[in-house]
């Protein structure tokens, strides 16, 4: 940010100190606006289309109840990796409690910064550990569960973990949608990753 | 009026530069090494489920199918009977299958081993081994290692058996 301030200051000096002619000024403004448009128009477009899509695809109560256990791709309970990255990196907004419910060896190799290891959602110890972790939390706490051990349809961990939180009454739980595995859909895409405990 | 325009433009530019920088830094962090294909297979020394030493270097001269798997992984379970069959069929010309389980403990692996009548050594994997092979960040992952110890192929996800068998035949023919 300091760098940005420095650049603004330098530009203002340049603007004030140089006797630019109208054409030069016009070109300067066009270039700046072009940079601005290139940066924000795609994001704005994506936001707009995303909102439109989510409105048109708003699940009926029945669909939502079904997908609560199935977590079908596209269902409201899921969050995409890119969206989670944006939330985690944004200086504003509520940050979720990110819980890893996959195998420990996978977590040790790579995990989302700040994510807590809970245990595999497929076994009773993992579920018990999850129950203990969330017990003191308010039911509206924003929680993101993830695993990434294997292709989405085969993951044995996220559904039991999600269903447990659902059963416990948590109302703001998302599951990170990892179509293939954590490597392909998170680490190799360059999203923030750390290893170890 | 001009000052106002200047401020707006400067802010837009600053935010633009900040955003471009943020995005590029978010995507430039390297993950773990993505592939070991066409390089010497990292050696390892582990204990199999019976407590016997299992060292990759001891299989130099054979074609090794190295399978990273887990009992809780459905595609892995589907592959195991095929690997058992391949081990039976190609043992004589020099194929050796080795299983590296990524389970968190040995108990389910031992049960699975008995249930599926596995006929090749299996050891529990470690973080260090997984990283040596480029990171096992999803299962299954299968490596084919030639007689010269070089990694010939890597398959991420459930492997297509005809493709795998063809590659095994090809590697077995190489002396």
The oligomeric status of these chains comes to heterodimer
CATH topology-level fold name of the largest domain in chain A: Oxidized Rhodanese, domain 1
Succession of helices and strands of chain A: HHHEHEHEHEHEH
CATH superfamily of the largest domain in chain A: Rhodanese-like domain
Q: In angstroms, what separates the terminal alpha carbons of chain B?
A: 81 Å
N-to-C order of helices and strands of chain B: HEEEHEHEHEEH
Q: State the helical fraction of chain B.
A: 40-55%
CATH H-level name of the largest domain in chain B... which superfamily? Glutaredoxin
Give the total of beta strands of chain B.
7
Q: Please give the number of β-strands of chain A.
A: 5
How many distinct helices of chain A? 8
CATH class of the largest domain in chain B: Alpha Beta
Largest sheet of chain B: 5 strands, mixed
What is the annotated CATH architecture of the largest domain in chain B?
3-Layer(aba) Sandwich
* Shape category of chain A: globular
Q: How confident overall, as mean pLDDT of chain B?
A: 87
Roughly what fraction of the amino acids of chain A lie in strands?
A: 5-15%
> Which structural category fits the helices and strands of chain A?
alpha/beta
Question: What are the main properties of this structure?
Answer:
A: 197 residues, alpha/beta, Oxidized Rhodanese, domain 1, 5-stranded parallel beta sheet, 8% strand, disordered N terminus, B: alpha/beta, Glutaredoxin, 2 domains, 5-stranded mixed beta sheet, two-stranded antiparallel ribbon, 7 strands, 41% helix
Report on the architecture of this protein:
The complex is a heterodimer of chains A (197) and B (175). Chain A has 197 residues and is α/β, with parallel strands linked by helices. Chain A has eight helices and five strands, in the order αααβαβαβαβαβα. Chain A has helices spanning 2-17, 22-56, 61-70, 81-89, 104-109, 124-134, 158-168, 182-185; strands spanning 78-79, 97-100, 116-117, 143-146, 173-176. In chain A, helix 6 (124-134) packs across helix 7 (158-168). The longest helix of chain A has 35 residues, at 22-56. Residues 1-6 and 37-68 of chain A have low confidence and may be disordered. Chain B is an alpha/beta fold. Helices cover 41% and strands 19% of the residues of chain B. Chains A and B meet through helix 1, helix 2, helix 5 and helix 8 of A and helix 1, helix 2 and helix 4 of B.
């Amino acid at each position: 940010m300091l760098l940005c301030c420095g650049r603004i200051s330098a530009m203002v000096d340049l603007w004030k100190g140089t006797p630019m002619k109208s054409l030069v000024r016009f070109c300067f403004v066009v270039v700046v606006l072009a940079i601005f448009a290139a940066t924000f128009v795609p994001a704005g477009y994506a936001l707009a289309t995303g909102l439109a899509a989510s409105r048109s695809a708003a699940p009926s109560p029945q669909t939502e109840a079904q997908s609560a256990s199935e977590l079908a791709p596209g269902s409201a309970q899921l969050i995409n990796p890119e969206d989670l990255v944006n939330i985690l990196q944004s200086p504003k907004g509520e940050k979720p409690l990110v819980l890893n419910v996959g195998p420990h060896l996978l977590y040790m190799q790579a995990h989302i910064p700040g994510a807590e290891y809970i245990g595999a959602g497929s076994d009773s110890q993992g579920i018990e550990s999850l129950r203990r972790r969330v017990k003191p939390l308010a039911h509206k706490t924003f929680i993101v569960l993830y695993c990434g051990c294997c292709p989405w349809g085969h993951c044995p961990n996220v559904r039991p973990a999600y269903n447990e939180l659902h059963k416990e009454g948590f109302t703001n739980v998302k599951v990170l949608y990892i179509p293939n595995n954590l490597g392909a859909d998170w680490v190799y895409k360059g999203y923030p990753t750390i290893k170890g405990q | 009026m001009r000052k106002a325009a200047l401020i707006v433009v400067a802010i837009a530019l600053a935010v633009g530069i900040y955003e471009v920088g943020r995005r590029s830094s978010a995507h430039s962090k390297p993950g773990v090494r993505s592939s070991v294909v066409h390089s010497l297979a990292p050696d390892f020394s582990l204990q199999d489920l019976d407590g016997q030493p299992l060292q990759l270097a001891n299989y130099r001269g054979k074609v090794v199918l190295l399978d990273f798997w887990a009992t809780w992984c459905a595609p892995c379970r589907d592959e195991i009977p095929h690997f058992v069959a391949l081990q039976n069929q190609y043992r004589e010309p020099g194929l050796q299958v080795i299983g590296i389980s990524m389970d968190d403990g040995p108990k389910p692996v031992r049960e699975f081993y008995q249930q599926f009548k596995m006929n090749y050594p299996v050891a529990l994997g470690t973080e260090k081994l997984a990283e040596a092979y480029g990171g096992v960040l999803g299962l299954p992952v299968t490596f084919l290692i030639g007689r010269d110890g070089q990694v010939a192929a890597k398959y991420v996800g459930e492997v297509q058996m005809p493709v795998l068998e063809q590659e095994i035949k090809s590697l077995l023919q190489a002396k």
